[in-house]
Amino acid sequence: MMAYIVRRALYAIPILIGVNLLTFVLFFVVNSPDDMARMHLGAKRVTDEAIQQWKAERGYDKPLAWNVQAKGIEKLTDTIFFDKSVRLFAFDFGQSDSGRNIGHDISQRMWPSLAIAVPIMLVGLTINISFSLMLAFFRGTYLDFWGVVLCVAMMSISALFYIIGGQVLLGKLLNLFPISGYDTGIHAWRFLILPVVIGIVSGIGAGSRWYRTLFLEEINKDFVRTARAKGLSEQAVLFGHVLRNALIPILTGVVVVIPTLFMGSLLLESFFGIPGLGSYTIDAISRQDFAIVRAMVFLGAVLYILGLLLTDISYTLVDPRVRLN
User: Fold this and answer.
1) How does pLDDT run across 37-89, given as a tens digit for each residue?
2) At residue 306, what are phi and psi to the nearest 5 degrees?
3) Which residues does residue 101 pair with via DSSP β-bridges, in sequence order?
4) Can you give the pTM of this predicted structure?
5) What residues contact 182, with CB distance under 8 A and at least 6 apart?
6) Domain 108-324 has CATH 1.10.3720.10
7) Which of 68, 61, 3 has its CA nearest to residue 37?
8) 95 DSSP β-pair partners
9) Any idea where the domains of the chain sit in the sequence?
10) Phi and psi based region of residue 183 (left: phi greater than 0; alpha: psi -120 to 50; beta: remaining)
11) Which residues contact 75 (CB under 8 A, 6 or more apart)?
């Protein structure tokens, strides 16, 4: 098992290097520092002096990957590639284009993002699986039919409708929760309940319908019919056999959610004014702060690869056959 985990961890290294190289090419080759300076300065006619000054202030005036004027190892280290890309592997995110410490901002903003994303993932996963198991238990009945109709209807509604509708109904008309804002300490829960509820409700349709499909695929297999023939109740079959054998695709779906635990929800944080990493990324894009955008792209790649590694490890726990591969 340990060899399997090490092998999977080693697979992540070239993937992360490839993501880093691709990000560098997109930000500094396809979109050169001169282009970034023109976009950031926002003027139709920008002088060369203003462009050079903007690049010098942010460390974009160095050669891209090879400094012919430097000596020794500085030919590699005194470059944009080393300063802006290689340092990311040590989680040295540097300074934003506005002069702020990106690492400090991330360490402060990750907690509001976690406070939203973790309850949404845990409670939402529990509700979706429970609802799907109920539909699978009553498969072929009117309850199953109208449950699927409800899921399709909820899937068809935009996430913006849930956000705006929840703000108007629960925040403005019923005055149960604040519409937007954030507070630190024990009072933060007042500002988190509404976005968490909206995040859970908006994901019930797609999540429940997908899990229902997984359970119906398992429920007609031979091992399930054998379990019924042995006299097991339908509840025991669902929870002891169907749910257990559907864990691998369920775990695969959870991987997609892992990066959002730290990266935050772009829409929820922006609409509710929560200072998390999601709103941090949106603000950086609107301000054309390229340093923050690069850091968040790299951090998202690291978290996604970490999620894949954790999923591979969890596979070995739920399916012993994986340990042999």
Assistant:
1) 888 887 667 888 888 888 888 888 888 888 888 888 888 888 888 888 888 88
2) -65, -40
3) 95
4) 0.81
5) 112, 188, 191, 272, 273, 274, 275
6) yes
7) 61
8) 101
9) 108-324
10) beta
11) 66, 67, 68
